[in-house]
Amino acid sequence: MSQSKARIAWALAAIVSVTGFASEDADAQSLAYDGFGNGPRPNLAGSTGGTGWTSAWVDAGTDITKIAGNGLSYPGLDAQIGAAVTPTAGGVWPSTIYARSFIAPPSGTNTIYASFLMRDDAAYGSWGGVSFGQYPTKVTVGSPLGYYQYGLMMSQGLGDVASKPLVQGQTTLVVVKITKNATGASLTYRLFLDPTIGSNEPGFAAATLSVGGAMPTAISIDNGTGFTTDEIRVGTTWSSVLPAAPQAWKDLGFAKPGALGAPHLAGTGPLSANTPVSLELTDTIQDAPTFLVLGPNAVNLPFLAGILVPNPSILVALQTNASGRLTLSATWPVGIPAGTTLCAQMWIQDPAATFGFAASNGLLGTSH
Description:
The structure is a single chain. By secondary structure, the protein is mostly beta strands. The chain folds into 2 domains: 3-22 and 246-366, S-adenosyl-L-methionine-dependent methyltransferases (Single Sheet); 30-241, Jelly Rolls (Sandwich), CATH 2.60.120. The chain has 1 helix and 26 strands. The strands form 5 sheets. Strands 1, 3, 4, 6, 11, 12, 13 and 15 form an 8-stranded antiparallel beta sheet that branches. Strands 2-5-14-7-8-9-10 form a 7-stranded antiparallel beta sheet, with no helix packed on it. Strands 16, 19, 22, 24, 25 and 26 form a 6-stranded antiparallel beta sheet that branches. The radius of gyration is 25 Å and the shape is elongated.
């Protein structure tokens, strides 16, 4: 590794560990989340991964679910590596039930939402989904026993079926809205399937079921055999359980022109643990002393007749090559919280620029 690349690798590793570097505030409307990113684990029982839970996962079934694999994904949905995998099991009544309690919603809350991803991994998977409440008002959300379609089912077998069939190998985004009715102690469950991330809550549900009982404070993964469950979220609003994947790189502008116009800085890589990350500077003069400025966020300060975009925390001395380009590569460190931001800009010595310096656009990276 060249000296400059060694310095950028060090700088990228250091920048995200400096005290005060920015991380997005957790959504106050989110109650609990588990993306199963703490694996692999041979048994989900005892796992305390995620946030907003008041207990670990407890095994109440007969078959094992583990944390494994790369996890499930859905277009536009924020997700992490890992999933709860229920292998294909034998026997007449294979069953996996893992329960976990989540923090209580604020006082006076009459509606909660939950979302999760599920995939049937076995031909003619018997049933799969998550459940809320206790017998006799326990409700299974997903593809309940005997349905082979998505829907809602009570413990006694009563329920409502959606038109979407269960398809082996297909990942489905399931959302349920649970509302405490104004009169009596009953609840209404409304099922939504495969919504577009960023869209408003649909006016009509794919299935609806009203039952007795109190607002649930626990959830259970309730699979028959051969299912993967992932990205479980509980919140008090539609948007809190359907967060969009953060944009890895954002061009903040404020480039300062030099001899060849405005230098351009671009970033590549998903900014997730152990993945390649690179910065590339173009549109500038050859063999020019260049300074990479790194910081936790943008401050946009006037500087040398231009704008210093990052809050300056680390400065790395570099140089463009004979083509007027500069490419720096490193590996994104492990343990960086999702939502952590890194702001970068390059300043290039250029006799044609005012005060002898041109500057690239500012660039903001957000870790996943």
